Amino acid sequence: MGRPSVQDQRKKEVLDAFMSCVVRYGVEGATLEHIAAQAGLKRPLIRHHLGNRKAMVLALGEHVVETFSKQTETLRVALDEHPDVRNLIEALFNSDGEMDPRINICYQALVNSIEIYPELRKPLLESMEAFYKVAIDIVLASHPKADKQACEIVAHGIINLFITTDAFVPLKPPKTWGYSSYFAALKLAETLEEKT
Amino acid sequence: MGRPSVQDQRKKEVLDAFMSCVVRYGVEGATLEHIAAQAGLKRPLIRHHLGNRKAMVLALGEHVVETFSKQTETLRVALDEHPDVRNLIEALFNSDGEMDPRINICYQALVNSIEIYPELRKPLLESMEAFYKVAIDIVLASHPKADKQACEIVAHGIINLFITTDAFVPLKPPKTWGYSSYFAALKLAETLEEKT
DNA sequence: AAATTTACTGTCAGTATTGACAGTAAATTT
DNA sequence: AAATTTACTGTCAATACTGACAGTAAATTT
């Protein structure tokens, strides 16, 4: 009874606003006022729903890790149907709107804040490990004859290139930069093909 | 006449301290007090030498761009002697102590702060363009018969992989991650070899 | 309609950060 | 030694940020 709770919804909204602010101002530059304004709420209200600043940062960490894990799972389905490296690359780089471009930037920002929030280290590390693992599995399944170590290197390379996809967006770089990581990932995948 | 000026030296020391703080706390998290403590100086003194906070951030931008440009030049000499892709990769990934690992992290942090300091955009963009250009030139000179576009893609890929080298360091990742970008870069370079 | 629970706002105190500047100390010239 | 220039320190006011909480409004149950 009583007024129905909207905490779950509000939390998501606030964390979404937090992400946008982290992209613009960094973790420490994202003030509670910034976040509240971005979410269209008053500052005391976001505190009511999420607690103090530290709790918010940790919640953001969970949120990013969770979103990351969902993306990882989305990739795993591409494995089940057609365990092909190109499918992996397409899913990573050309899934229109599926991947939130803010996630990678926030992830990196949180990694760099680990000295302030050491609790973030473990979940961030584990989510990235899972991400690598899925990529490695796909590459291995896709090229069963290829050298195992080569597959791991290619998988790592593809993921690392993916990480940089949106790294330069604030620079408004020439269009040629935009797809460079994508094309490089494709070339990297080529190295596993049979050499005829 | 008068007491000899140590501004040039002090500026360098402060900017070096600023870099260390940006790596730990991000651009906005690096307070003047942090920077001063890191440099072993009093806060009013760093102001005396470098001006207010905004001036310091812009000076840091110049410093990073300058260091970046020096690294770019260091690479160009590797071009003149042996324009080989492997030399490029070795110079990037295995030049013990030559490359300051903080530079990439600071560069990325500054890129993400462009909305606050728009003046940084142009120099940051240009320094990265120069960096790409040198890499492309080396790859082209190294493989004159190869497809031009392929060379550009490989060069971009190598640089983008280089960018990620120290991205995960705060996570204290397993050793296997450490060289993944390096090995991936080598594999990427392989794609330009003659297919026999 | 009363009670209850939650959403939301206004506001204040404590702290952190920055900017500013007066004043002192040190090194150099004349 | 006096003058001059710069390095450096102490300190205070203004501002920004956060934490806390009382109090109001809204939605639901009985």
From TrEMBL, chains A, B:
DNA-binding region range list: 31-50
InterPro entries: Homeodomain-like_sf (IPR009057), HTH_TetR (IPR001647)
Source organism, top-level taxon: Bacteria
Keyword Zinc-finger: no
Domain HTH tetR-type: 8-68
GO molecular function: DNA binding
Positions of transmembrane segments: none
Keyword DNA-binding: yes
Alphabetized UniProt keyword annotations: DNA-binding
Entry protein name: Transcriptional regulator BetI
